[in-house]
Amino acid sequence: MGKKTEKSTSSEAYSEIGLADIPSEVKFLLEKRNITELRPAQKKAINEGLFNQESILVCTPTASGKTLIAEMAALNTIFNLQGKVVYVVPLKALASEKYKEFKKDYGDKVKIALSIGDLDSTDPFLASYDFIICTAEKLDSLTRHSAPWLKQVKTIIIDEIHLLNDINRGPTLEILITIMKNLVKDMQIIALSATIGNSKELAEWLKAKLIVDNWRPVKLKKGVYYDGTIEFHES
Questions:
Q1: Half-sphere exposure of 125 (CA within 13 A, CB side)
Q2: pLDDT tens digit string along 67-95?
Q3: Domain of 107, in residue numbers
Q4: What is the CATH number of the domain that holds 87?
């Protein structure tokens, strides 16, 4: 288990968190991807108990490292807590993309499954897998069919959680989260979003630590394009 750090809201405390604070069972992934320094949101997540089963809501810009936070939590759960992980995404295409990426990087260490098919099937084969990637609709079907392995889930990752506000997908996602929270006591929830307006209220509902950060790998500039030229606004 990673070294427990003293909690603080200061940027200095976050900057002290590095690769040494990451469990060895998780560190191999960073080494494989040649990651030598954590991004701000990743440091904050570790500081707030990512490796101690704390639920976390991450609200940071695109490409700020949210997916790696989820992966670190997943690998920590699988190797140290011997529990299952469910990664919920809104689209089948995104589920397939995540499956291929994760399978390539650590499919030799973790049994990863993709479940996006028949909504009337319980997919009993999933009982033998550690890391299950699926859509919200598929997980909703699995809960309604009372898939027995669901009680072995220790971490659930919800990508694009701002879709709770979507009139079509929102109700299903809200009910699904509620069912899973009742089904699995002390389940870790890792929720990810690049944009959400009611982050504090959502974090309270999820009983999660809120991680907010504006860091992005490429500085965002605003400007006006006219007649072949762009005039940027001063930040």
A1: 8
A2: 999 999 999 999 998 899 999 999 999 99
A3: 11-232
A4: 3.40.50.300
Specify whether the CB–CB gap between 217 and 64 falls below 8 A: yes
Q: Quick one: pLDDT at residue 7?
A: 38
Report how far residue 184's alpha carbon sits from residue 172's, in angstroms, rounded to the nearest whole number.
18
User: pLDDT tens digit string along 140-159?
Assistant: 999 999 999 999 999 999 99
Query: Using CA atoms, how far apart are residues 129 and 142, in angstroms rounded to an integer?
Result: 15
In a domain? residue 186: yes
Q: Residue 233: pLDDT above 90?
A: no
Q: Is the pLDDT of residue 96 over 60?
A: yes
Burial label for 229, CB within 10 Å (0-12, 13-18, 19+), is exposed
Q: Which amino acid is at 181?
A: K
Q: Residue 6 falls within a domain, yes or no?
A: no
Residue 3 lies in a domain: no
Per the structure, the count of domains in the chain is 1
| pLDDT score for 207 | 95
Written as one string, the DSSP assignment of 135-200 is EHHHHHHHHHTT-GGGGGEEEEEETTGGGGG-TTTHHHHHHHHHHHHHHSTT-EEEEEES--S-HH
